[in-house]
Amino acid sequence: MLLRHHETTQELEYRQQRGVHQLREEQVRKQHQTELANQHEYCGRRERELHKRHAQAVKQQPKSLKHKELQIRKQFRETCKIQTRQYKAWKSQVLASTPRDDQKAVIKKLKEEQIRKLAILGEQYEQSIAEMLQKQSIRLDESQDTEVRQLKEQLQQELELLMAFQSKIRMQAEAQRNRERHELQERVSVRRALLEQKMELEKQQFQEERAERQRLLCERQAREIEAFDEESAHMGFNPVEIADASRESLGSSDADSLAGSTLSLAHSNSASSFTHTAL
């Protein structure tokens, strides 16, 4: 009865613990799924924001390059003006020291030299503009590629940290569940050991009480037999001689009947004697 009650209680405790553990595991699983979903949504939003910013930068790039190109062309025009002023001053100096007959040829030569220098200067500025446009475009592409790579590395690192933290939480939860299962097993084992000890003590006590009752019963029977023998002897009966005589005169079946009658008579006399003594 006690063991059956113990086993029923044990099964209820194990079932309750399994239910609590399953509930905790499900709660942790849903929480981790939500965290991962939020992290993926955050990563996607960061990537979309960066892509939008890059698109705006690319869209704004022509305006910026056009502004720089205009600045270079303005600088080119200023340089041309300076070259023209220098040419006129140089022309005046040369003509002042050149005979009138040779001035026409000198002017033509100086003009051709001026045109050649301006053409070279123009080619240099155009080349500068082309190189500036190319460098700015390459620099923008490299800068955007670097930002994309850095953002992906950062987001991947954050995701790995989150997954590592979740793994640590799961390990700690599993360790706690194992500890609780072990503690419950220990409590059940201790309770069963105490129950078995109690049952053993009760069994031992019962055996001792039974042995005591048997001893008392044997002592009482011995006293009754002794009293019966004394009463029989007082009345002049010898049960042993009567039994021997009966066995000699009767057969086995009659002997058994006579023995039964003798024992009945003996018990009757003993009872009468006890009654008489009590009175």
Automatic annotation (TrEMBL):
Coiled coil location: 192-219
Keywords tagged on the record: ATP-binding, Coiled coil, Kinase, Nucleotide-binding, Serine/threonine-protein kinase, Transferase
Keyword Transmembrane: no
Top enzyme category: transferase
Keyword Iron part of the UniProt annotation: no
UniProt GO molecular function: ATP binding; protein serine/threonine kinase activity
GO-annotated cellular components: cytoplasm
Domain of life: Eukaryota
Reactions the enzyme catalyzes: L-seryl-[protein] + ATP = O-phospho-L-seryl-[protein] + ADP + H(+); L-threonyl-[protein] + ATP = O-phospho-L-threonyl-[protein] + ADP + H(+)
EC number: 2.7.11.1
Name this protein carries in UniProt: non-specific serine/threonine protein kinase
Annotated source species: Amblyomma triste
